[in-house]
Amino acid sequence: MASKLHFFLLLSFSFASLRISMAGDPDILVDFIPPPALFGPPAGNYFTFTGMRSLVGAPFPTTFKILKATMEEFPALEGQSVSYAVLQFPNGTVNPPHTHPRASELLFVLMGSLQVGFVDTTNKLFTQTLQQGDIFVFPKGLVHFQFNSDAKNPALGLSAFGSASPGTVKVPSAVFNSTIDDQVLALSFKTDVATIQKIKSGLSG
Fold it and tell me: For this UniProt entry, which residues form the secretion signal (predicted)?
């Protein structure tokens, strides 16, 4: 009986591991997901995203800015397992540590230079300084960041994601702008509640 139980537990864990390894956007059994019927049959404009036109001829922003083309902004991406984001870094700005739980990210530096990095599950940090024309991959679900350390020049990046809805969990906000009890955070970060509250106050401004 014990050996049978061991076999079924092993089989269950194997199927669970397989499901996790295959996790991602679900496959669709049609060419594409059409818009709701009330919008009529799809035409070429349904497969066209014009949101990036705002970048053309526009002045560079003074703070870090992301312009996304995910399923939320571009419904035709549903079921296609791909999305984009344009990242604009004025000099000295950062895209703070964050994760994309449903996708890996491929960053292409179009202008300037960026210091990038990610932390794996053993807490090892992998960093690289990217120049214009370089590409860097951030593995799915791992904490990562991008930083324009140039004090004078902006940087521009284009990110491709392996999901139509990669999701973003911003580490500072997820930890300090959530409803996690201050005492729990103080113990976790080996500090006091007053320090935690000071950090929260700084992030909310």
Answer: 1-23
- Max CA separation in the chain (angstroms): 72
Task: Tell the burial category of 46 from Cβ atoms under 10 Å away from its Cβ (0-12, 13-18, 19+).
Answer: middle
153 marked ligand binding residue: no
Alpha helices in 51-192 (DSSP H): 171-176, 182-188
Whether the Cβ atoms of residue 32 and residue 76 lie closer than 8 Å to each other:
yes
Q: What is the mean pLDDT of residues 139-148?
A: 97
Tell me if 93 sits within 8 A of 64, measured CB to CB: yes
Closest CA to 129 of 155, 104, 152: 155
- Annotated binding residue 98: yes
Is the pLDDT reported for residue 113 higher than 50? yes
135 token code pair: 């590409």
CA nearest 68: which of 190, 197, 168, 188?
168
pTM of the model: 0.82
Q: What is the pLDDT of residue 83?
A: 97
Residue 95 annotated as part of some ligand binding site: yes
Would you say 105 is a known binding-site residue?
A: yes
Percent of the chain with pLDDT over 70: 87
**CA–CA dist 162, 8 (Å, integer):** 34
Q: Which residue's structure tokens are 């079921």?
A: 79
CB neighbour list of residue 34: distance below 8 Å, 6 or more residues apart: 41, 42, 46
Written as six digits, the tokens of 111 are 């202008």
Residue 6 known to bind ligand? no
